[in-house]
Write a structure and sequence with these properties.
This protein is mostly helical. The chain has helices at residues 25-28, 40-50, 61-79, 89-96, 101-115, 127-140, 150-154, 160-178, 184-229, 234-243, 246-260, and strands spanning 11-12, 15-16. A two-stranded antiparallel sheet has the order 1-2.
């Protein structure tokens, strides 16, 4: 991932600064109650007693549950239509088999639960990793690529509208198959498109977190180097000036100067 050194200037002494306009994880994920200072003790007491579910919720928990129920009902209907020729077995497999929509819905429900802090992340990425990701990408500001953004990371937990549309489409598909208005091939194709969208969303989220985690040590070192370029210790500043590429050092020096100039906002 190629990054401009100038994009790492949101630091003081190597410590990232989160811009005032940056959205935090609490703003991006729904919570059961706003954490106001006067309520903190009571809320934390509930969390200690009942676990994270006393504070947090899975934003797509309801709709994924509804989808799983609809898939089970659909599978029952299709199972009753399978004859000796094996017609509709492929549709049944696309509903409940390995790699089918039932598995895809379970996968995104699990990903959203982990991102919401309600369950241990089976893939290694949960709320702790999301908070760390937010801290790192806040350093990059506009320089962060869309595929590594917080929107991409949190997409599995924010897919409620798409899943609601899938629920309606699934029910219509099964009704049309049962009524003979839709072929098995067309029904399978429609379900496979839903599966692909779910898998792409979860895969993109996992890829974004993994990519930034792989670069985290380098980014932290680079941020420290950038901050040290303006060090009051001449020896430190001279060393950083020597190891940072000249064009990058000049750009950083200009940006540091701009930050100190009250006429530039």
């Amino acid at each position: 991932m190629a990054l401009s050194m100038g994009s790492l200037l949101g630091v003081i002494g190597g410590v990232p600064i989160v811009p005032a306009s940056a959205k935090t994880i609490v703003e991006r994920l729904r919570v059961s109650k706003s954490m106001m200072p006067g309520d903190m003790g009571q809320i934390m007491s509930q969390v200690l007693k009942n676990g994270p579910g006393a504070l947090l919720q899975n934003p797509i928990g309801v709709i994924t549950g509804q989808l799983q129920g609809a898939i089970g009902a659909a599978a029952g209907q299709i199972q009753g239509m399978i004859g000796e020729a094996g017609q509709f077995t492929r549709l049944l497999s696309t509903l409940t088999g390995a790699g089918g929509i039932q598995a895809a819905v379970s996968r995104i429900a699990g990903a959203a639960s982990a991102l919401s802090g309600l369950s241990a992340p089976g893939n290694g990425y949960g709320l702790n990793e999301v908070v760390g990701h937010a801290s790192i990408v806040s350093m990059l500001g506009p320089a962060v690529p869309p595929e590594l953004s917080m929107d991409t990371v949190l997409a599995p937990a924010g897919m409620g509208q798409e899943l609601e549309a899938m629920l309606a489409a699934l029910q219509a598909i099964i009704q049309d198959v049962v009524a003979g208005r839709l072929s098995e091939d067309d029904a399978v194709a429609a379900l496979e498109a839903m599966i692909a969208l779910i898998d792409e969303t979860v895969d993109a989220s996992m890829h974004a977190v993994a990519t930034v985690q792989e670069q985290a040590v380098f980014l932290a070192a680079a941020a420290a180097a950038v901050a040290s370029l303006g060090s009051s210790d001449p020896a430190v500043a001279a060393h950083m000036r020597a190891i940072i590429q000249p064009a990058q050092a000049d750009a950083i020096a200009q940006l540091l100067s701009d930050q100190l100039d009250p006429t530039k906002g």
